[in-house]
Model the fold of this input.
Amino acid sequence: MNLREERKVTAMSEWYTMEGKDSDVVLSTKACIVRNIKGYNFMPRLDDKECQSLLETVDGAIDKNVYSGGNAADFDKNTLLRLTRLQILGRDASQLANPDRKAFYYNDDVSLSVAVGSGEHITVKAMAAGHDISVYKKAENVALDLEKKLDIAFSENYGFLTSNVKLAGTGLKVLYTVSLPAISKTEGGITALNQRVKQYEWSMYPFAEGSEISDCDVFIIASVNTQGVTEDEVLKRGEMLIADVIKAERALRDEIAGSKKEQSQDIYGRSYGTLRYANMISRSEALQALGWLRLYREYDDTGDINISWNTINKLTMDILWEPDAPSRRNSQSVASQKFRADGIRKILKGAD
Amino acid sequence: MKCERCGKELTNRIYKINGVTLCENCARVLGYDRFVKDPADLLSNPFSPLDQLASTLMQMNELDFGNSSLTCPKCGMTLREFENEGRVGCIECYNTFNDNIVREMFKQQGNSEYAGRLPAQSADTDCSTKEIPQMIKKEAPKANTIDISEKEPEAPAKEEKAPAAKSDKGGLTVEQLMKADLGMLSDEDLEKGIKAAAEAEEYRLASRLRDELKGRKEGNGNV
Done:
């Protein structure tokens, strides 16, 4: 990575802390479009020589005036951590496996990226804070540019061809990351919401499955169908669904804050105190406290606690992705809990 | 075997719900608590495990030993590898495993007909984000209730697809017929469905509908 690229990485803003619509419920909106190039086997059957040729072919089609980055093997540790925090790389370490066979390109604010060799040949991703479906057009514009420059695998019967047949067709996934403390605390709430999501033929799953925070109130709501639907239908369904989710979550916050005001106010204050002054804190405890801040923030009429949605969202995302903890393998260790608590205290102290 | 939702290795407790294999935690998270039985429940009803086993076996795909050695001539991927991994190795695999890929698409999405945009052509979308008004200080809903599942979502009007895919005779569409529980359809729906499926060249569906109708007629004759 050259000096210009290093400067861009360190100077880039954190897109998820930007002001977003409906950010009391929706943490982020993402659109992912996958494409493959004719003449190359798909990733699982692509040998190293072919893979290098693929990386060079895509590199030649990337507009270097807009995008930084390159082969993942050339990224230093700081770049990897930052790209993880900004959700270009997943927390899942598998994305960093075989870095010689992968490349990542990203724009200045890292809201737009092109990954090469991560599951499919090309994955275009556009991300925005809060509820913002304009991410689709941003991702589509990047995909269109690449489709004009490269010979993309396409069939009239199946649409865009992919290694993972679940993506064949439009190759499009739209994802909303939502925090639903009120629905989660309502008996049968998540079950009812799941049924609603299925009626739209979308899917919903916890943000962090199979981990110590799998019971946290952050969920991903994602499109499923890539066949039999147009891109427009996917987007419209998604917008109707997310509107339902936002309304339901807010209605239940009203209900909880109204019917259990004293208890809610008490837990809200205690949660803030825990985050503000704890010396050690687990991910689960921190996310639970943030859930209460999110649930009751609009109803707190004491004026004692001053915390913005941006701060709540930044803390939530930082803890969910947490790329630079001392030990990602053991986020329950004393060092990790202390590191986390220090980070939270610094942010809240700055927000006071 | 792994949970299809969280990817964790499955232990001795496996839940197969609507064709999806889940671990105990995911079955609970998705609200299928009624399937997640306490050992005490099983002791009180010793036949329930047999019910579960029978139900699971009923949901399994038909065994098809005929094509198990099918191999893609370009990349060398076998049908077995595709079925295990859900991924194909190259474009040619789409020709080699055509039937299996179509079946997989139907299983996942209920459809295998492409309706999206063409390469290098922008999709016709008019979607923009509208902020949802805050509900604070409005009339609160009933305690401990959530109204999100009470009514069917008003799905956006679907664009007309290829004429062969839809019935124009007032019956169900081919897609709907493929997803439908045939036992719930009227004889009239089945008759219209056979014609619609034949027109759409969905002969496997047409024969399923015909068999259902035939079975009913024979069943009635025996009564």
